[in-house]
Specification:
It contains twelve helices and 18 strands. With 414 residues, the chain is an alpha/beta fold. The strands form four sheets. The protein has an eleven-stranded mixed sheet with strand order 4-3-2-1-18-17-16-5-6-11-7, sandwiched between helices. The two termini are 33 Å apart.
């Protein structure tokens, strides 16, 4: 008896809908509703399907864009053994090198509070703020309830210590060390390669970790992150308006020669290595024992985004989305942050020159509905149901088959 599962959507676009079905543990691919059942050049149907997916993706991303911006969320920091196509070195614990999904974050915080004296347990805290979820336990929803109840709870000292311990644990879990299996460096190199425009690649991220910083430094990039280049490194948004050029005495023409490896990094929710001085200055500091400047998970993120330095970063994000001939690559961002989703949706509707490419393991959730509906009608939006690592593996990968193989599975859906 055959065992079926539902068809999982891999690509959503106006020209191509690609789906995957698992039958008796075997993958079957459908292109615009038609099953791929061919082999060629010694390659299986699955190998050919994945190469066709890579071609569709790279045709979309391979257009000449003047402005390239990236928006990343927690998904770009998630590392799983299933994403690694090689034997993992002994002694490397992939879990310790990965960001945490919401259920893992909840489990880590619950364990930490159980081991910490003079604090409430996670469920005692939930009871005190009247957080009784009908579905899964969500740390962001809990901390939202905490914010609403903090002025009315009993045992205030214990309550406040519990919140501090939760925030400390979140920060510690974001102190992730880059390892050889992360794809951040490879992604950046592919992103920057063959660009004709002098406009710098700009990476906007809501992540607190420093994986992109570590990767950029490892690959020899200059990072423009809004902080000064003398110590202490102080934040001032004007640094995003500066650039790096090569000064030469033997130049025949006056046109500036731009340094190749420069990337802008804008951390919209703060970072584990940001601190705020009493005078209001924001500095970059690697002291692990001091409080980090971060917008912790809670619904008040929207209000906090209007404070400095976050407001400067959000404003620049909006400006970038209004530019002509722009590609926005969204990676591992669920659009659960309504204020960011609103900014992107408005830009999608009002800037006809904006192209959007979304990467997420599950592109069929309600958070992506607006973008999926748009993608089915217009050629400037595409969604890919891959993880970050899976996407990087196929990004800029050359096709190695004949297009004739796919003539009868269709290049567009009716």
């Amino acid at each position: 008896m055959k065992e079926f599962c539902h068809r999982e959507t891999i690509i959503i676009s106006c020209a191509d809908i690609v789906e995957k079905e698992t039958v008796d543990n075997a993958e079957v691919y459908y292109f615009n509703g038609k099953k791929l059942d061919k082999t060629a050049n010694g390659k299986t149907e699955v190998e050919l399907a994945k190469e066709k997916i890579a071609e569709i993706v790279n045709n979309f991303l391979g257009r000449q864009y003047e402005n390239t911006i990236v928006l990343t969320g927690a998904g770009s920091s998630i590392l799983r053994e299933t994403d690694i196509n090689e034997e993992i070195d002994e002694g490397i614990n992939i879990y310790n090198h990965s960001g945490k999904i919401m259920s893992e974050l909840k489990n880590e915080i619950e364990k930490h509070l159980e081991e910490t004296p003079d604090v409430f347990s996670l469920y005692e805290l939930a009871e005190r703020v009247k957080y009784f979820p009908e579905e899964g336990f969500n740390i962001e929803d809990l901390l939202t309830k905490v914010d609403m109840a903090k002025d009315y709870v009993d045992e205030k000292e214990k309550f406040e210590k519990t919140i501090k311990e939760i925030e400390k644990k979140i920060k510690n879990l974001c102190d992730i060390k880059l390892c050889k299996y992360h794809k951040h460096g490879e992604f950046i190199n592919k992103l920057v390669a063959k660009r004709k425009s002098h406009n710098r690649v700009k990476i906007f991220t809501t992540n607190y970790d420093t994986l992109f910083e570590q990767a950029l430094q490892e690959e020899g990039y200059i990072i423009v992150d809004g902080f000064s280049y003398e110590f202490p490194r102080k934040f001032n948004s004007r640094y995003f308006d500066y650039d790096f050029i090569i000064r030469g005495d033997n130049k025949i023409i006056d046109e500036p020669e731009y340094v190749d490896k420069v990337v802008h990094l804008l951390k919209m929710h703060g970072s584990i290595d940001w601190r705020r001085y009493k005078n209001g200055e924001v500095i970059k500091c690697h002291d692990k024992d001091t409080n980090s400047l971060m917008i912790y998970p809670r619904s008040a993120k929207f209000e906090l985004s209007y404070e400095s330095p976050y407001f400067d970063l959000f404003s620049r994000f909006q400006v970038e989305l209004r530019k002509k001939n722009t590609i926005l690559i969204v990676i591992g961002f669920s659009f659960a942050d309504k204020h960011i989703k609103s900014i992107v949706k408005n830009a999608m509707l009002n800037n006809p020159h904006l192209n959007i490419f979304i990467v997420s393991p599950n592109i069929e959730t309600k958070e992506y509905e607006d973008f999926a509906d748009r993608a089915k009608k217009y050629e400037n939006v595409m969604l890919l149901g891959y993880t970050f690592n899976q996407f990087v593996d196929i990004y800029r990968k050359q096709a190695a088959y004949s297009d004739e193989l796919f003539m009868d599975v269709g290049d567009s859906h009716e």
